[in-house]
Amino acid sequence: MLSALVQKFYRFLKGRNKNIWLGLGCGILVFLLISYPVRSQQPTTQQSQQSQQSLVVATRAIPPFVFDDKGKLSGFSIDLWRSIASEIGAEFKFEEYPNVSDLLSSVENGKANVGIAAISITAERQQKFDFSLPMFSGGLQILVRNSKINSGGAPDILSLFFSVTLLQVIGLAVLLTVIAAHIIWLSERHHKESIVDKSYFPGIFKACWWAAATLATQADEMPKGVISRVLAIMWMFAGVVFVAYFTAAATTSLTVQQLQADIQSVNDLPGKLVATTTGSTAAAYLKENKIPILEVAKIEQAYDALEKKKADAVVFDAPVVLFYAANQGQGKVEVVGSVFREENYGIVLPNNSPYRKSINRALLELKENGTYQVLYDKWFGVKKS
């Protein structure tokens, strides 16, 4: 009986062979269609999760790339990063650092995922970091005090008369004049034809006048006593030396002022004290070329050193010094010479960063769709230049 049932089931399957294979094929196809989207969505989901991770973006105040108005950040680099973050769908928060060295350290130590401001792409930095495609082309330029202010005669003469060196010379001359006046009065007061009065007052005043006039080589009379005349001759020679020394000091001071104002290109920097920020490419350039350097923490301190005549010039990123000269430093400083040591700025990331490709892709997209040009015109257009 069992064999009969098996035979009937075999004949049933045999009669329906085509339908079974067709059903089996449809089932396999449905299974593949259901499973494929699940597999294909897995990396996309991972990428979405990665892009939605909150990124820490290191930056620093350096107009016009980054402005800090009581904690509210703006500027070309800030707007550019916001546009990039929108393209890649990433949430982020800014962390501000005082200088480029601290900014780079935060990226290197993993405290920040990205760094953006005005960061030059150099061979040395590329050994430690990954960089995006160039986001800005720039270079270095020289900032000096306004030549119209420095060339005015009155300010130079006044600064000469109130210089420490000249005040020391005048103080020494006054002391020697008083000593010489007392010697003349003591040796002349008893002479019959004395040029001074016998009493201390007003005799000492006349003696002081004579000593001062003789020191300036303008004496109109000579003492009558032997000792007084010997002293007078010695004092005349001292007057010649004094006048020569004063003339040399004044000439040297005015010449130095003229030389300090005569900076027109990078070739004029050797021998001048140049201010810039620590760890910058400008500092590296000055050290390489053995130019005296005054390193400060912030670029604002370099501007202050220049305006207070503690430095002869400032060397820094061209768009930064141009912006300062056209705004806060207008009338006080000016940019001279052409751009040198041309360099590109980029977005800095840790080595092997997973965000590099997406950032580069977004940066290219912003340049192609015109967003980058809009931001460039906003911060570097005629009104901002």
Strand order of the largest sheet: 9-8-10-7-11
Shape descriptor reads rod-shaped
- Major sheet size, sense and barrel closure: 5 strands, mixed
Instruction: Give the helices and strands as they follow along the chain.
Output: HHEEEHEHEHEEHHHHHEHEHEHEEHH
Please count the helical segments: 15
- Total number of beta strands: 12
* Rounded average pLDDT: 81
Calculate the terminal CA-CA distance, rounded to whole Å.
Answer: 103 Å
State the oligomer: single chain
Estimate percent helicity.
55-70%
Strand content: 15-25%
Going by helix content, strand content and strand pairing, the class is alpha/beta
Low-pLDDT windows of residues: 36-51
Radius of gyration: 41 Å
Walk me through what this model shows.
There is one protein chain. With 385 residues, the chain is an alpha/beta fold. It is built from 15 helices and twelve strands. 56% of the residues lie in helices and 16% in strands. The strands form four sheets. A five-stranded mixed β-sheet has the order 9-8-10-7-11, with helices on both faces. The protein has a three-stranded parallel β-sheet with strand order 4-1-5, covered by helices on one side. Helix 3 runs antiparallel to helix 15 (371-380) and helix 8 runs antiparallel to helix 10 (226-261). The N and C termini lie far apart (103 Å). 29% of the residues are buried.
